[in-house]
Amino acid sequence: MPGFPQAAPVEGLVGGLLIGLAAAIMLLGNGRIAGVSGLFARALGISPGQTPRQLALAFIIGLPIGAGLVELVVGVNANFPAPAYLLIAGAIVGFGTQLGSGCTSGHGICGLSRLSKRSIFATLTFMSAGVITVTMMRLLGLSP
Predict the structure, then answer these.
(1) Fewer CB atoms inside 10 Å of the end CB: C or N, the chain?
(2) Tens digit of pLDDT for each residue in 10-49?
(3) How far is the C-alpha of 119 from the C-alpha of 110, rounded, in Å?
(4) Which spans in 31-116 are helix H?
(5) What per-residue confidence (pLDDT) applies to 114?
(6) What CA–CA distance (Å, rounded) separates 82 from 45?
(7) What whole-number distance in Å separates Cα of residue 88 and Cα of residue 40?
(8) 53 exposure class (CB count in 10 Å sphere: 0-12, 13-18, 19+)
């Protein structure tokens, strides 16, 4: 793609379809929204919820396992930041999910598909914040 040399539209499409499928299975099979932050909290036992803890744990464990399987099958090497950065970023995202009453998966995937006004506003907010953050990083020469 011109201007986006590292774009992977086919992989993005397949990933998006799989995320949508997982969200649909969770909603149809369990009657619950597949909000990853809520499932993560439920899996750790730090949040009460209607989703069985075993199901939440399986969903959360399945995320890195699925990524690992894709890496093996496709042969793409994933590059992750240092663990300290991941922990800091995770804490910031966790704070944001508490503040916004949901995470990007809950609002952006499940909420938008249900045309939830709260989710539309939340998604516009976090997408705008992401665009501003990336723009500022590039202006400051911090982009990879």
Answers:
(1) C
(2) 878 888 888 888 888 888 887 877 778 888 888 888 877 7
(3) 8
(4) 36-44, 53-74, 83-99, 104, 112-113
(5) 83
(6) 26
(7) 16
(8) middle
Q: What is the CA radius of gyration of the chain?
A: 16
CB count within 10 Å of CB 94 equals 14
26 sits in which H/E element: helix 9-30
Which of 93, 76, 106 has the alpha carbon at shortest distance from 133? 93
Per-residue DSSP letter, 31 = S
This prediction's pTM = 0.67
Closest CA to 130 of 86, 98, 96, 83: 96
Torsion of Cα atoms, 56 then 59 then 60 then 66, to 10°: 170
The residues spanned by each domain of the chain are: 9-140
Q: Are the CB atoms for 53 and 42 separated by under 8 Å?
A: yes
Tokens 């793409």 — which residue? 76
Q: Using a pLDDT cut of 90, give the percent of the chain over it.
A: 8
